[in-house]
Amino acid sequence: MDLRAALNLVEAANQPTDIHIRKLSYPLDSLEPVMSKNCVDVHYNILTKNYFKKYAATGDLFQKAGAVLHNDYYWPMMQPFKSKNEPSPALGESIEKAHQSLSKFKTAVQEAALTVQGNGWVLIMQDLQIQTIQNHLLKPGILWAIDIWEHATVDHNFNREKFFKNYWNILNWTAVEESITK
Question: pTM for this one?
Fold first, then answer.
């Protein structure tokens, strides 16, 4: 069952349901140097899977659904490290319409991340606008999520600016574009 559909069913019925985490489509070490193999292993295999297990067991929308949903918008939007990684011309044009240029968009995302005090997420919405949230608050209309909790930036000594310097090299622009068309 698709995760988003499962979350809708749970919300409607307020009952736990069978939710399965998506498997990573890349090896644990393929996000280096942005995220080390150890960081991805702990983050995905322990933290993310734990959110899914707790949510599937309880169906607790307020405590776990945000964590489940945000992680479902996080892991599939990454790919093995590429030194030259750009969006397709069509997606690039959409970003330019919304933010004047890809460079300004990237800067705005990084600046948004730096404004979050403590743990949270940078959310890129379907209209390519940038929002931030603390903790795991649910927001409708997410295109992709960027985890800025401490475990995501540990390889950069918790420095979000250093993390974002290379984040764009692991972003799966194709997955972003496919998500827009859904």
Answer: 0.82
